[in-house]
Amino acid sequence: MKKYLVTAVGWDGQMGVTYDLEGTLQSVVFSDDCNWGFVQRKSSLRVVPGSDLLVAETFEACKTEKGGKAFSVTSADVIPTFEEFWAAYPATSDEKGNKKPAQDKWDALSNADRMAAFAALKDYKGKLKRLGYQAPQHVKTWLNQRGWIK
After folding, report:
1. Can you spell out the DSSP letters for 55-66?
2. Which of 78, 77, 23 minimizes the C-alpha distance to 49?
3. What pTM was computed for the model?
4. What number of other Cβ atoms are within 10 A of residue 51's Cβ?
5. Backbone dihedral region of 67: left (phi > 0), alpha (psi from -120 to 50 degrees) or beta?
6. Which of 24, 72, 131, 144 has the fewest CB atoms nearer than 10 Å to its CB?
7. What does the alpha-carbon distance between residue 85 and residue 81 come to, in Å, rounded to a whole number?
8. Which of 137, 84, 78 is nearest to 106 (CA)?
C-alpha cells in the first residue's frame, strides 16, 4: 500500500491519501488542524480511485499566485497489518486455519516480506481459480512455505 502526505504551503494541517497495492483509493484523511479552504467543502473534493501515480504530480504541479510551490508531497509504503492480511486472504474462515499461529508467523516476517505476501494475495487467488483448487492452504502453511515467492 502507498500513502501520500500532502502539506499546503501557507496553510495549516495535512491531508493523507492512502491507496492499496492495486491503486484503489482506500482513504482520504485530513488532520484536525487542517484549515484549507476546500476542506470546508469536503463533498466537492474528488479523488479518482486508481490514480495513485497522479497524486504527487497533481499536487506538486499546483502553484501559488506568485508562482511558487503550493504543496509538498511525501510518500511512504504502508506495511499491512495482520488483520488486513487475514481479511484479504482468499479463503473462508474455516479454510484459513488457526488464526493465532498464523499471526505468530506473520509477526516474525520482515516488513518487506509482509508487503510481498500481501501483494501476492491477488495472484494466489487467481492461481487457485485457474487450477480449480477447492480449498487454499491454511494461512500459516502459506506463510511458512513463503507462498508469495512461488
Report:
1. HHHHHHH-B-TT
2. 23
3. 0.59
4. 15
5. left
6. 131
7. 6
8. 84
Q: Where are the domains of the chain?
A: 2-77, 82-144
Quote the CA–CA distance of 18 and 47 in Å, as a whole number.
11
Using one digit for the tens of pLDDT, what is the confidence trace for 87-98? 889 888 888 999
Q: Report the C-alpha gap between 137 and 31 in whole angstroms.
A: 41
How do 2-8 and 25-30 pair as beta strands?
unpaired
Task: Write the single-letter amino acid at 4.
Answer: Y
Is the dihedral angle over the CA atoms 88, 90, 92, 97 positive or is it negative?
negative
Report the candidate in 111, 19, 25, 17 with the shortest Cα–Cα distance to residue 73.
17
How many residues can be counted in the chain? 150
| Strand, coil or helix: 75 | strand
Supply angle C-alpha 22, 16, 8, rounded to 5. 130
Gap between the Cα atoms of 84 and 6, Å rounded: 24
Instruction: Please name the amino acid found at residue 30.
Output: F
User: Mean pLDDT for the chain?
Assistant: 75
What is the residue whose three cell numbers read 497524486? 55
